[in-house]
């Protein structure tokens, strides 16, 4: 009998925070990767994530989770965690066995990887929770568990059908799995969210700066707006001319920093002479409703500064020199067109 028990949890943050970011669901998931090198050597790696924040590591020898945050652990949370740990450990062992037993039947080829993502979704109101489990083979979705049943993924082919057929016969496992993802998991998640509230809801203001990227062509500029160090992840960044959004704005991926904050680069390909007057506008929940605006400074402005400062200085020096010569030759300043007395 198989005991395949995995948990992926998606939860909305509780509490009446009015920021849009906190209306979004956040997820908690346990991810397990089993690498099969040959019929005697495998490797297991596991971790747990609350949305995109890693909350736990996993000791693959004992099957225990490793807390990565100093959040208080209520014993309710600990109980829930121990259940999940037990299931995950059993699951890993079973899953490894099943895949190794079916290498030929399912046409698996060494080396290969099997990934599991397990969790539950708890709506903002706390009443509607949905749990799910997904298994991938070589990075492609293979099967998923929903409504007490294993379903093949469209891309999984006949292998996915074989896996589902086998897993669906195991009613005990499926009942256990169902209980886990619809009951233990949401409870554990709620306690985790509560314990980690301060860290999870922490806001960090972005810093921004502008630069140019590699020139896209003659007479063109690639303007790049960098936004860094913000939390939470949702952010709006747009190149603007006055109040007008520039449709050519290209948004990159939001990339993680190691400290849990984010980085985003947004670029605009422009004719160099049309770049004047552009700005990069950043909207983020940490900015308290006040957008951050970064104005593009023409590189020519250095030339303007030069003209505005150096030219008058040269003129002034010329005038001083002329006056001095005048004073020297005539002793009294009675130079033509310059009656000082
Ligand atoms: C399995 O792979 C490991 C190294 O990856 C190797 O040391 C071992 O001999 C292999 N075992 C078999 C049965 O091929
Ligand atoms: C356990 O995890 C470590 C990395 O954390 C890895 O190097 C090691 O190979 C893993 N062992 C097994 C048996 O999967
Ligand atoms: C949890 O804590 C309460 C009191 O804080 C205690 O009465 C209860 O026995 C504890 N449960 C477990 C399983 O430790
Ligand atoms: C889940 O299963 C129940 C009964 O087994 C059925 O009534 C319900 O429609 C199913 N839901 C979905 C989304 O398939």
Automatic annotation (TrEMBL):
Location of the protein in the cell: Cell membrane; Endosome membrane
GO molecular function, one term: exogenous lipid antigen binding
SMART domains in the record: IGc1
The entry's keywords: Endosome, Glycoprotein, Immunity, Immunoglobulin domain, Membrane, Signal, Transmembrane, Transmembrane helix
Topological type in the membrane: Single-pass type I membrane protein
Entries under CDD domains matching the protein: IgC1_CD1
Domain Ig-like: residue ranges: 186-286
Residues annotated as transmembrane: 302-324
Signal peptide location: 1-18
Cellular component annotations (GO), alphabetically ordered: endosome membrane; external side of plasma membrane; extracellular space
GO biological process, one term: immune response
Descriptive protein name: T-cell surface glycoprotein CD1a-like
Organism expressing this protein natively: Odobenus rosmarus divergens
Name of the gene: LOC101376202
């Amino acid at each position: 009998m198989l005991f395949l028990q995995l948990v992926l949890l998606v939860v909305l943050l509780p509490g009446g925070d009015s920021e849009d970011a906190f209306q979004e669901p956040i997820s908690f998931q346990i991810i397990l990767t089993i690498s099969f090198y040959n019929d005697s050597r495998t490797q297991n790696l596991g971790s747990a994530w609350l949305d995109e924040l890693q909350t736990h590591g996993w000791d693959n020898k004992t099957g225990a989770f490793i807390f990565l945050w100093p959040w208080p652990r209520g014993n309710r949370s600990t109980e829930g965690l121990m259940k999940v740990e037990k299931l995950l450990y059993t699951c890993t062992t079973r899953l490894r066995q099943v895949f190794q037993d079916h290498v030929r039947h399912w046409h698996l080829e060494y080396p290969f990887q099997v990934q599991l993502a397990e969790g539950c979704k708890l709506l903002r109101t706390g009443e509607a929770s949905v749990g799910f489990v997904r298994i991938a083979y070589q990075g492609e979705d293979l099967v998923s568990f929903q409504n007490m049943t294993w379903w093949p993924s469209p891309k999984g082919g006949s292998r996915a059908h074989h896996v589902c057929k086998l897993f669906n016969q195991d009613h005990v496992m499926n009942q256990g799995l169902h209980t886990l993802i619809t009951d233990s998991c949401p409870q554990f998640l709620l306690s985790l969210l509560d314990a980690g509230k301060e860290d999870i809801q922490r806001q960090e203001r972005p810093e921004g700066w502008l630069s140019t990227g590699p020139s896209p062509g003659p007479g063109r500029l690639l303007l790049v707006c960098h936004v860094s160090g913000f939390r939470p992840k949702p952010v709006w960044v747009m190149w603007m001319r006055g109040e007008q959004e520039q449709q050519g704005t290209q948004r990159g991926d939001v990339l993680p920093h190691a400290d849990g904050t984010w980085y985003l680069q947004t670029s605009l390909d422009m004719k160099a002479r049309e770049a004047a007057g552009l700005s990069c506008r950043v909207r983020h929940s940490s900015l308290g409703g006040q957008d951050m605006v970064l104005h593009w400074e023409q590189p020519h402005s250095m030339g303007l500064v030069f003209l505005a400062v150096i030219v008058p200085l040269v003129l002034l020096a010329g005038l001083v020199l002329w006056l001095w010569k005048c004073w020297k030759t005539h002793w009294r300043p009675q130079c033509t067109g310059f009656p000082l007395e």
